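Holo prediction — glycine.
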Amino acid sequence: MRIPLEAIRIFSDRRQRLAELIPGCALIAAAAPEYIRNNSVHHPYRQDSSLYYLTGFEEPESVFVFRPGQNPESVLFVRKKNKERETWDGFRYGPEAAQETFKIDKVFPIEELESQVPQLLKGVEKLYYRLFKNPEMDKKIENILLSTRLSQGRTGFGLLPLVDADELIGEMRLIKTDAELTNHKKACEISAEAHLEVMHYIKPEMNERELHGYFIYQAMKRGAAREGYGGIVASGANATTLHYVFNDRPVKAGEMMLIDCGAEYNYFTGDITRSYPVNGKFTNAQAEIYEGVLRIQKEIIQTIKPGVPFQTFHEMGTSMLTDLMLELGLLSGRKDDIIKAQEHKKYYPHGIGHFLGMDVHDLGMYMHKNGEPRKIEENMVFTVEPGLYIPADDSNAPAEYRGIGVRIEDNIRVTRMGFENLTIKAPKELSELERIIRNSP
Ligand code: GLY
Ligand code: MN
Ligand code: MN
């Protein structure tokens, strides 16, 4: 399989940047494990984001070893060619073609991992590796660390110090290059367009699962490889379950929908939530909550610019949503006391947003960096997703609000002076939502 050279360069450029960060050290990134779904069938495979980020290689059972400044500097272990297995499971590169195609210095068969890597790690200062993502690989790393130490003879040196690779790669992934932004913007745009298509399509009595399938269809039609996470398609009181997964109920006129779905494109994902009435007409109670959450979301987005601590957005969200809870009569008392006692969490239990990139909840330091509050920087992308969720059985809440869940989520890029909303194509104004849904064929 041919991959254009400029597409491969994106990966070698990243390795070059990484090389500057860890001179004298080594980094190992392992493929995501395969998981059995049932009997001899696997869950759809998706490569580990960090391995893909550094190599572009998508096959399971592969391991990348990086040793800045050494020869070979980049080393990949992959499955051998196997005619019979390829007849069943499809093409695999094998070491020779992988080396040529992905411009890796040296590629070995995966069977040689434990015999080659201890040699490759000799004399290295520290090893960057993320434990606990792949238990089988963790075991191999343990053996490799022991062999590396033994191979040095009786020197008295201890095991190679292990450092979390995700923290390092997370910070690299957090600030996006132009090439990365091209892919990420496309993922967000596809996600927004697919949301709009669902708004045009929805009708009472459709099943949540049909709407979910329709989102995926519209995303894939536009080039998405898959969803970036399991989509949440929640009608009525299901919307008050934050990560509702069943997606199997018929949607009812008079109720609201909450759809939190995102498309993945070239390993970047969108993450959009829209909430709207199934029949295109907000009730007064639904509109009060919706307009309140929308106002807060817009206000927070307007404050985004480089230099603002990420924590500020969390604090704004908590403060303004607590005001809204007081306005609606969901809570009573003094705002500061409520927040101190965390009472607002009853109706707003999550944070205001998260970094977004190759993983939906992306890596990167949120709260602090180098002992200072983490400030946002140009070309970070994150979500802004305030929400209010009133459980159906909450007898303390005014009756008209019970069973309503609203979240509004957009994907924002930090620009040099402010922000860019990457998901603008998904409508969120109340009147626009009503018009689109009521005019659906
Ligand atoms: N889709 C999960 C989230 O919004 O965080
Ligand atoms: Mn999100
Ligand atoms: Mn989401």
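READOUT: The chain has a mean pLDDT of 96.
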